[in-house]
Amino acid sequence: MNRLKRQRKGAVTLYIIIGMIIVVMIGILFYYNEMHYKELQARQPVYVEKPPVLTEETPVVEAMETRDICDSEDFADCFVCGCPDGYTCNGKECELVNNTQPRPFMVFFVPVNYKPADPEFLDRAGKAIDFIQEQTAIPDESFLIIDKELRTNETCSFEASALTIFADDWYKENFKVSLPAPVVDESNQYVYNYRVIGINSMGQDVRECGCGFTYLMGDSVYLGGNECGRLPHIVAHEFGHTFGLCDEYDTCIWDETDVQIECRNTKPDKFNSDCGDVCCKENIACCYGKYSAHGFNMMGSANMPPEREINFESKTVINSYVCENFKIC
Prior knowledge:
This protein is α/β, with parallel strands linked by helices. It folds into two domains: 72-244, no CATH class; 248-329, no CATH class. The protein has eight helices and eleven strands. Strands 4-3-7-9-8 form a five-stranded mixed β-sheet, sandwiched between helices. Strands 1-2 form a two-stranded antiparallel sheet. The protein has a two-stranded antiparallel sheet with strand order 5-6. It is elongated. The model is unreliable at 39-67 (pLDDT under 50).
């Protein structure tokens, strides 16, 4: 009896062991089957839908000829290419000197120690013209580039009046008459219907004579070859002096100038500028100047940045001058 019980118990144990082996084998088979399925999925190619190729909308770029842009008859930017002999740049294109019609107001650019077609000179003159013309009522045709070089070894000692003499000789050579004589206005100031701007390639001592210089209400402007003299707003700054606009980077300098000649622009103060009411020391600029819509007015200091432009007041002074005196409105 006991022997039979031991036999049954051994059979049950055997069946349990066999069952466990079967379960383990099924689990192993299931695991490897799952892994194989995932591997097959990973090997399947992935198809990405591509956008259609718009051949009709794609422009065809023609091969450009390797030649100088100034060789093209369609390229008329005389500030880049200059003008041939007998022509002058009128602010837009080259025109025959002898066919140039007198303007009611003229702005001459003189190449000082530059060849008239020198790209650097033309670039400096072009940027200055753009700065002035785009912000005032002075039209393109008022600007003329003299096609003759003025040679000099002087910088700070250069007399700006020599520019007027040089421009007058050029004008007589081409128009057979001298530049018009100035008239005297109601405030006993001379009114010239022209300005002469000389741009020198030579640098100068900025501490001695600044970036450039001129005479208040005068007819000529000189710019040196230093970095600050190459900035368009510095050309406009000196140009503004010829319309009676005074420096706005020091309240005391403004006061001193106003005593000599009545300034056409108002005094910088703590409300319209970053100068406050104090004087600068050592006769150098200590503030940017009067505010403009997007930065500071060009009659302020030479610093860059911030952005410089011709503010509403200075623009009104210049535009009123050419409108009242020369009917350019």
